[in-house]
Backbone:
């Protein structure tokens, strides 16, 4: 009986506490509903389904047949596992090489596990061909046309940005630039869902009689300032760059890989003025030099373009390299030698950026992936617009003393 009375009193106390606390809990719950939670912990995420290599191939093949007047699809090479490295060309004269028009090169998936890097390019291709013939469209259904272009600004004060762009910007891009897009530089890595390609390695120096590992980090395999890592081995993590089992293994020699050879061969016979290489993650942009804090001769031009892109996508423009925070009297040597940007700019004179997408890898939220795709339609169109004056700007915004 005594135990029963004790239990009854304890139970009554719990009831009283619940009666006092429950209204407060309900208020907190209602408040949290009204405040947008931070993804991904408190949101119900609708998982995004990324394109596979095969699905992309089917889509691009179909689009190139439907929109053959403005889109072509060619393979610039094949991988170790026999997959085509697809290149899309968009132009109003797609079968003609128009020497007077600047070339724009967009690349994704140097690293196969960086899914948004190719997804935004597939989205961009589809958007461009499907919108090319469209007249002015009221995309946000507010009775106005083209009042909110891709500029990162809420021009119509409706709480949204860039939701009603001008369709003429698509026609301008295809009429005045040669637009080349390689969505998956590393299709084998995409299929295998890892960073490197799938070429077998035979030891660090290629001399082992048997396979020791698989894959090279393609964005360490481009041949600019290749030997600088031996001068500053700790700064550049040399032990990992030359370890064939490492995720950043750079290969036996510059352009040892089929994929980087394909990009090199393509670039060397085309007139490219500007390039964006998409990666993930971090929501920031970087530009050469990738191996040193020293400025390029086109520092002012790089900053001008980068700041304009940042206005659209709201990403951070890192002007001292990925890890630097200030300028140094004696340049600091660190970073990513062997990157495509270093080679494109250092050897070919192409203004080249790296764009790191999203806040995590891989981004799973459908709304966040689609928002990223949409923002970078704007970024890519801006690059096409800027390409039309960039050769003149290379001459006027040049500081030879920075090299």
Residues:
């Amino acid at each position: 009986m005594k135990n029963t009375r004790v239990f009854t009193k304890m139970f009554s106390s719990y009831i009283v506490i619940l009666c006092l606390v429950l209204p407060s809990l309900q208020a907190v719950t209602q408040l949290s509903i009204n405040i947008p939670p931070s993804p991904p912990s408190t949101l119900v995420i609708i998982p995004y389904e990324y394109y596979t290599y095969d699905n992309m191939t089917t889509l691009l093949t179909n689009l190139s047949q439907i929109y053959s007047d403005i889109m072509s699809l060619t393979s610039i090479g094949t991988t170790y596992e026999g997959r085509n490295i697809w290149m899309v060309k968009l132009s109003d004269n797609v079968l003609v090489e128009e020497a007077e028009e600047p070339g724009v090169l967009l690349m994704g998936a140097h690293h196969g596990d960086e899914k948004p890097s190719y997804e935004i390019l597939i989205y961009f291709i589809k958007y461009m061909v499907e919108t090319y013939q469209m007249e002015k469209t009221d995309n946000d259904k507010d009775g106005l046309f083209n009042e909110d272009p891709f500029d990162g600004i809420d021009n119509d004060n409706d709480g949204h940005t860039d939701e009603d762009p001008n369709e003429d910007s698509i026609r301008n891009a295809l009429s005045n630039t040669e637009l080349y897009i390689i969505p998956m530089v590393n299709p084998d890595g995409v299929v295998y869902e890892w960073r490197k390609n799938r070429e077998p390695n035979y030891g660090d120096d290629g001399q082992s009689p048997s396979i020791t590992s698989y894959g090279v980090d393609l964005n360490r395999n481009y041949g600019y300032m290749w030997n600088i890592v031996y001068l500053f081995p700790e700064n550049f993590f040399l032990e990992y760059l030359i370890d064939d089992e490492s995720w950043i293994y750079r290969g036996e020699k510059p352009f040892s890989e089929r994929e980087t050879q394909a990009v090199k061969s393509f670039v060397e016979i085309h007139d490219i003025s500007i390039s964006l290489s998409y990666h993930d993650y971090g929501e920031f942009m970087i530009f050469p030099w990738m191996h040193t804090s020293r400025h390029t001769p086109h520092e002012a031009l790089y900053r001008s373009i980068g700041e304009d892109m940042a206005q659209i996508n709201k990403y951070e423009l890192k002007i001292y390299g990925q890890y630097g925070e200030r300028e140094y009297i004696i340049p600091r040597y660190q970073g990513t030698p062997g990157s495509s940007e270093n080679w494109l700019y250092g050897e070919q004179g192409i203004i080249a950026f790296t764009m790191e997408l999203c806040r995590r890898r891989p981004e799973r939220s459908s709304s966040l992936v689609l928002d990223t795709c949409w923002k970078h339609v704007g970024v890519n169109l801006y690059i096409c617009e800027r390409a039309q004056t960039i050769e003149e700007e290379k001459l006027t915004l040049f500081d030879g003393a920075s090299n």
About this structure: The chain has twelve helices and ten strands. The mean pLDDT is 86.
